[in-house]
Amino acid sequence: MQQENIQQIAVVRLSALGDVCHAVAVVQALMKVYPAAKITWITSPLEANLVRLLKGVEVIEYDKKTGFSGMFELRKQLKHIRFDALLHLQWSSRSSVLTRMLKVKRRIGFSLSRSREKQNWFVNELAPEPRGYHVLDSFLSIASVLGVKDVSFPCELDLPDNPLKLSSPYVVVNPCGSKIEKNWTLEGNRAVINRILEKGFTPILTGGPSALEVNFAQEIESGIKGVVNLVGKTSVESMCALIKDALLVVSPDTGPAHIATLVGTPVLGLYALSNPKRTGPYQDLDNVVSVYEELAEKEYNKPVADLPWATTVHDPKAMQHIRIDQVLAVLDTLV
After folding, report:
1. CA-closest candidate to residue 206, choices 153, 161, 248
2. Homologous superfamily, domain 170-334
3. How far apart are CA 332 and CA 335, in angstroms?
4. DSSP H or E segment with residue 192
5. Minimal CA–CA distance to 272: which of 313, 331, 307, 305?
6. Which terminus of the chain is more solvent-facing, meaning fewer CB atoms within 10 Å of its CB: N or C?
7. pLDDT in tens, 29-51
8. Burial 274-286 (b: 16+ CB within 10 A, else e)
9. Helix, strand, or coil here: 244?
10. DSSP symbol at 35
11. CATH class of this structure's domain 3-144
C-alpha cells in the first residue's frame, strides 16, 4: 500500500500510562510520515488525558469497566469508518477483542517473539523483529510496517502552563509505582530529598491520589523543611508541564518516569522487579540504579540473557535491595 493511500489510521493502546507514553512517541513519528492522515486513538479515560496533548489525534475513550457493552457502543460510534491500517499496540485479549469492533484493512501486531495472549490471531500482518530490547522498540517495529524508522525526543505536546510558580530550580521525586512492590524505601526517599535540599534545589513530591501514595508522601516529608508535596494534587496534563521544567525526575518504573522522557527531562530510574533494558526510561538507561539482574538470576538460577523477554522478579521486598549510597552517587552526577 502506497503512503498516499493511507488516509485513516487506528491506534489501540488502552493502558498503562507509562506504555502510553512510549506509544505517544511512536504515533508522533507516524504523524510525520503521514501528515494528511486522520489518526484515531482508542485508549482508557486516564491515559486519554495524555494522548490529547498530541495535537491532531482524535481520542476515543474506552472504559474497561464497561466490558462488551462499551465495545459494542464503540463499534456503533465508528461503524461509518473503514480504517486503512490499525496499529495494535497492546498484548491483552481485551484489547484484541476490542479491535474487532473496527472495520480495518490492515491489522498490524507484534512479532511472534513479542506477541502474547494470542494477539497474532487478531491481526493480518506481523511486525518484524524489533531492533532493540525496549517496549518502545516493539511499538516502533509495528509502526515500521508503515514506514516509520525512528522516534525523536522531546515530543511536541500541547502542554498547559506549569502549575508551580517557583523561581528556583527543582527536582521531582515520584516515590510510588503502580504497585506497592515498586516503591523504594522510606529511608531512601528521605535521603534523596535531603540531598536535593543540600544542593540548594527544591524537592517536589508527586504521585496519584490514592491513600497509599498520599500517606507515604506525608511520611517522606515529615520533619523536613522545604519540600513541596503535590501528591494527589495534579492532573496528568499539569504533571507533564511540571516535569518538563524540572532538572531531574527520580522515580521507580511508573508513568511520571516515562512522561519525563516524552518532555525531555532526565530520569534517575529505580528498578528491581522488571528489566530496565525493557521498561526503563528510554533516553536515560545509563542513569538507572538496578538490582534486577542479580535478583532475577537468583530467582531463576539462569543468566538474564537466557530468560524470556518479559521475565519479572517476584520478591515483594526486591526494591529494598537498592542501596541509598548507589542512588545518591548517581544523583550527584545528574544535578
Report:
1. 248
2. Glycogen Phosphorylase B; (3.40.50.2000)
3. 6
4. helix 186-198
5. 313
6. N
7. 999 999 999 999 999 999 999 99
8. bbbbbbbbbbbbe
9. helix
10. T
11. alpha beta
